[in-house]
């Protein structure tokens, strides 16, 4: 097989990144955009020893699960790389990810529920982080083509709250009007790198973050004054990111208009959210995810609860009024400040959050003799560490509720807990990210009977 060769392929599977999978002359071929059951003519893009990448030239036999995507850019950019598959099949794809991982781990007996669908299939994101670049001498917002830094200009971000798209376009036009240069990442010059916009569905408040190369730029006062006139914008932040890096946000934020946070709500609990704080992006699905996790925790009024990887305290503060005490830890300081402020904001006096790495804080607490009843963990994609797991077990909880955005690391960690006398019999996938291959899942570990 050679680059640029055209081959006819039968697609037999979907990879975890939602690429069609085919086999040809002993090679596994990943075909962008192709679906199982389809026969396609594809052009070979790259050939490695055991696998190759190809793109569709022509669909000879089309899958009945295919959706005609209006804007092919969504799929191309990876912004919504499952958008070409019917929603019920997306849910099945996500469930299958979990089933396959359990199968590989010899855990076929674990039950995997149907994926809980999201109330909104599009327009669900309460936050957009979009790159800003010059394209043909004009400042554009958009998204990078998959596996590249080529900006595809976009004005409809599809999975984002349409109110946020409206603000993104308005800010883009203001930057154009004042001739603010976009960031040039090759030479590390120019100015605006990203626009980061957050909107609370509950309060309607909107935060606009201009991620900039410099702490200030000549047009900033006029630009800020005009952005502040966009309806519902209550906060404008300049995030200073001077480094040549792929990391989106720099360390320092400067308020250029309004508040340093916006306020949102999950259930009855209010949350202030600062620019650097993590907040679940699917506003309508988040309470359903938390309710599932909380129901499974079967909390009692005398329980001591840990909220690990707590972000702004959303899980712990949602349960604080029903338990004896909540203690949480989180590595981002502004998020911890938010969490403690959020406790006060809601009149909660039995919850306390500290700054630190979970894998360091948990062992410290365990060594101090802390005993717990229920531990909630909600780590980033890389999952937990063995140090955290050992320390969590040492505090002797009845239950550990594991919320994960990466079932591969979740299954790995659940096995480590199993070796330490905890067991689980079910994983529930929840769709937090429709139109994308991302899978969220919840599992509950209980102390195994001796
Ligand atoms: C998936 S988020 C969950 C946040 C929160 N539970 C929620 O539902 O909004 C994971 C959080 O873990 C934090 N984090 C990442 N690495 C960490 C570590 N080593 N120790 C503690 N927190 C960490 C991130 O900053 C982020 O807020």
Automatic annotation (TrEMBL):
Pfam families: TRAM, tRNA_U5-meth_tr. Keywords: Methyltransferase, S-adenosyl-L-methionine, Transferase. It comes from the Bacteria. Transmembrane segments: none annotated. S-adenosyl-L-methionine binds at residues 280, 309, 330, 378. Gene3D superfamilies: 2.40.50.1070, Nucleic acid-binding proteins (2.40.50.140), Vaccinia Virus protein VP39 (3.40.50.150). Residues 1-58 form the TRAM domain. Coiled coil: none annotated. InterPro entries: MeTrfase_TrmA_AS, MeTrfase_TrmA_CS, NA-bd_OB-fold, SAM-dependent_MTases_sf, TRAM_dom, U5_MeTrfase_fam. The active site is at 405, 405 (nucleophile). PANTHER family: RNA M5U METHYLTRANSFERASE, TRNA (URACIL(54)-C(5))-METHYLTRANSFERASE. Belongs to the class I-like SAM-binding methyltransferase superfamily. RNA M5U methyltransferase family. This is 23S rRNA (Uracil-5-)-methyltransferase RumA. It comes from Lactobacillus intestinalis DSM 6629. The lineage of its organism: Bacteria, Bacillati, Bacillota, Bacilli, Lactobacillales.
